Amino acid sequence: GQNIDQPTEMTATEGAIVQINCTYQTSGFNGLFWYQQHAGEAPTFLSYNVLDGLEEKGRFSSFLSRSKGYSYLLLKELQMKDSASYLCAVSPPGYSSASKIIFGSGTRLSIRP
Amino acid sequence: GAGVSQSPSNKVTEKGKDVELRCDPISGHTALYWYRQRLGQGLEFLIYFQGNSAPDKSGLPSDRFSAERTGESVSTLTIQRTQQEDSAVYLCASRRDGTYEQYFGPGTRLTVT
User: Fold this and answer.
1) Quick check: B113 and B16 in contact, CB under 8 A?
2) Which among A10, B27, B60, B77 could bridge B21 via Cys, Cβ 3.0 to 4.6 Å?
3) Chain A environment of B103 (Cβ under 8 Å)
4) What is the pLDDT of residues A90-104, one digit of tens each?
């Protein structure tokens, strides 16, 4: 099965950089996702990594190391609107095109002025 | 274009009653997912449809939960004999074949009294 761990809460300052870590243990692996969820809203897709390395998309970057079962989401130039929960999710083996994903419990990020 | 829609947005029901939740996916999206999110927690996978068939029902918590999908579009999640622990937000998501991003609806907040 999948065991996904990420910190429950983090706090950071507007304008700064924050890194949210995610570790996973799975018998196989078919990709890792990050989703953003503002309070009371539906999750929205941020990134998908299937190969090792860093993928950058504007202020957000996502890193994956498959050998270590580790990923992080890096948020730069933090803005107040970045206050949200960040959900790490793993696609288990046997599901092509990451057709099924299992979510971690999420990290609630609070940005202070 | 239109996103994923869900109805009702809120449902309050008495313990023991049956409820039916509806999801309208994005047109052309063959994959459809149901998740449950309890207050302050992550997303719990319930069931996944590919077209009208459900290759993975492993997340349904008990035989009180069932789901169907017709015409490769609308899906309904039925909870029979509701219990207080069923209180949660039920999220639906859809995905286009060959892609990996899931698009989420706004959810149905179910409260069992």
Assistant:
1) no
2) B77
3) 45
4) 987 776 656 788 899
